[in-house]
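WARN  no MSA supplied for this record, continuing single-sequence
INFO  ligand: arginine
INFO  echoing inputs
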Amino acid sequence: MDLWAGRFTEKIDKLVRDFTSSIKLDKKLYKYDIAGSTAHVKMLARCGIIKEIEAEKILCALKEIEKDIKAGKLNFNQKEDIHLAIEEEVIKRAGQAGKKLHTARSRNDQIALDERLYLREEIGQIITLINDFQKTLLGLAEKNLDAVMPGYTHLQYAQPILFSHHLLAYFWMLQRDKERFKDSSQRVNVMPLGAGALAGTSLPIDREYVAKLLDFPKVSENSLDTVGDRDYIIEFLSGAALLMMHLSRLSEDFILWSSPAFSFIQASDAFTTGSSIMPQKKNPDVAELIRGKTGKVYGHLISLLVTMKALPLSYNRDMQEDKLALFETTQTIKRSLKLYAKMFDHIKIDKDSMRKEADKGFFAATDLTDYLVEKKVPFREAHQLIGIIIKYCLGEGKGFKDLTLSDYQKFSSSFGEDVFERIKLDSCVFNKESAGGTGKKSLARQIEKARKAVSLKL
Ligand code: ARG
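INFO  complex generated
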């Protein structure tokens, strides 16, 4: 008989049992469920709600159960959920004492606890994995300081930049992702037990003591809110969606860069796959799948938002549907981060190819405009003048380098001999020394800050 079935005369329908069961997913939470029960039972004994000897029996059963689950000796697949499965097992092993485990507790505050403990641990691991990947990107940036590449807007070549600068753009996106997860963990790290089903309890419990045992800095303030909201999961999923958005854009860059049209980088064989029909193919599937899985992570965020949007307070069974979103998302972002750290550690960079591409077209147009501004030509006039020179060049089939000083001076008397220095590829990259720019010194300062950012414990 189900533990809750006292008031029922009929047995639960098999279809209903299967439909309502969450065990296939929430058995993953057993470790946290047992940790929560352990703290709860210690508190019950300390507050005199159950006897010491009863607590000892329950604690002993919980320990054994944990060992047996780890060893794969317990099969809970027919149970409704992990909370009932473990409680039933405690009763089997600890007898009458076991029947006291669920005193002053409900599955509603229990699941909130399990998910908070789970998420707290996962967020810690995710922050470390983001940091590891940032280190990889930083290492790659530091190793390739001389690689010049075309910088794009609208995927049109705009101005030349350092490859390291492009990599570090992702470094800072990841830094914000890391900070977002860290910040959201404050709201995860709140102790829900004691909220009971929704109203609290008339028994003399000590929530602060449970919080201390489970290492929570505070207890929740309102029992309805405690069992009735999942905003901390939604917040985590939002952070995950943003992280995946960043990884997906990196995937896109990676896929473009490794295509023959760009040929800027090459993934190592171990991180690509072939085609079953075209023998020559080497495909960037890891990057494509990370981009693809991003859609699923967005879907999980939307799905939980929609699940929650019209629920009356407090707990509703709809909320059980949060598990797939939570578990799949943590798994996806952890795997993606691990893979990317490894894959970027093994890429080959074709600096010559990047440079050749960067050296094409009118990349110095903005630099020439700035050159005229330095000669006191108003910016709008300078912009127009350079546009006219480009029009002239296009008509003649020439580039900036093919013009003589007198050609330049036909357009403006402000041009001098020094113009030829300004149209060189390296000058165009290295002179962008404004804070946050792609210039040499500016990049060195950025790298220094990045180094600090990965060495600080968040
Ligand atoms: N399996 C449930 C969930 O994940 C646990 C809480 C069940 N509470 C209830 N009143 N039926 O949400």
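Residues 22, 26, 81, 107-108, 111, 315, 317, 319-320 surround arginine (CB under 6 Å).
INFO  checksum written, moving to next record
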